[in-house]
Design goal:
Shape: globular
CATH topology: Alpha-D-Glucose-1,6-Bisphosphate, Chain A, domain 4
Strand content: 25-35%
Helix content: 25-40%
Strand order of the largest sheet: 1-2-3-4-5-6
Structural class: alpha+beta
CATH superfamily: START domain
CATH class: Alpha Beta
Number of helices: 3
Largest sheet: 6 strands, antiparallel
Order of helices and strands: HHEEEEEEH
Number of strands: 6
CATH architecture: 2-Layer Sandwich
Length: 129
């Protein structure tokens, strides 16, 4: 649950520069981008994502871009109306993994998506941990 109206959650998630502003200072030099794209440097590689679709106040879809995309994926951020001006946030990840990769990293991807959902909600609620 996010203690923000869906319009505000959508505005935050549909503009990737908003996400860059929320990064801890020690990670900001590893990320660059604009409203529609984000490039993250990690372990000697660059991972690029871009906003592929915006459905006002309900969904933002991200896709990879750039030459170093190792695993094709799509991420949907589903935003729903909650109670008393709050919203719900659900992250859906689709990754094209072969059976071996699915067995090796599938559970870690699920944990990562759960952690990102939790951290996004905490950040939007103003919680610091």
């Amino acid at each position: 649950m996010v203690n923000q109206p869906s319009e505000r959650v959508f505005a935050s998630l549909s503009n990737l520069s908003n996400l860059m502003d929320k990064l801890p200072e020690e990670h900001r030099d590893k990320v660059r981008g604009d409203n529609d794209t984000l490039i993250i440097q990690m372990q000697g590689m660059e991972l690029g994502i871009r906003v592929a679709e915006r459905t006002p106040y309900s969904c933002v879809r991200y896709e990879p871009f750039g030459a170093q995309t190792l695993i094709p994926f799509t991420v949907w951020m589903h935003i729903g109306e909650g109670e008393a001006g709050a919203s719900t946030l659900q992250i859906e990840l689709h990754a094209e993994l072969n059976m071996m990769m699915k067995m090796m990293i599938g559970p870690k991807l699920e944990e990562g998506v759960d952690m990102i959902t939790e951290k996004l909600a905490e950040g939007m609620n103003g919680e610091v941990r």
